[in-house]
Amino acid sequence: MKEVLEMHVNMSNRWCGLAEEVFDRLYGLSSLQILDLSANNLLIVSNEIGCLSSLQLQLHLSENKFMSIPNEIGHLSSLQLLDLSDNNFMSMPESISHLSELTELHLFRCSKLQSLPKIVPFNLKHVHAQECPS
Fold first, then answer.
1. Three-state secondary structure readout of the chain
2. What count of Cα atoms within 13 Å lies in the side-chain half-sphere of residue 65?
3. Number of other residues whose CB lies within 10 A of the CB of residue 124
4. What domains does the chain contain, in order, with CATH numbers?
5. pLDDT at 19 over 90
6. How far apart are the C-alpha atoms of 82 and 121, rounded to whole Å?
7. What is the pTM assigned to this prediction?
8. Residues 5-31: what's their mean pLDDT?
9. Confidence label for 15 from pLDDT (cuts 50, 70 and 90)
């Protein structure tokens, strides 16, 4: 399984959030480039997300129920697109500034988001934050 390049996980038919189990099972995927965990009713982004440092292109975490985003997300330094739309977090960690390759950030309908970090990634070209209060 180490050669998996793209993974879309759909647990939307399950009635419980399995965030820790999902992230625990992804660590050996050293070639993973795109990970889509959208629309799974996940409650937390595991701190272990930082262990996916080889994730290169896209991380889709939209349409879940995240109340916070861990600092460890800043370890994904090769990430180019991060989609956190339709979640419940109020702020983003300062570590997002470590995402040096990030060019696109999706924050659609993050209705509780109050602020973004003052330092944004250098390559960031597009921030999509429609229907956000801040």
1. CCCCCEEECCCCCCCCCCHHHHHHCCCCCCCCCEEECCCCCCCCCCHHHHHHCCCCCEEECCCCCCCCCCHHHHHCCCCCEEECCCCCCCECCHHHHHCCCCCEEECCCCCCCCECCCCCCCCCCEEECCCCCC
2. 10
3. 17
4. 1-134 (3.80.10.10)
5. no
6. 12
7. 0.85
8. 60
9. very low
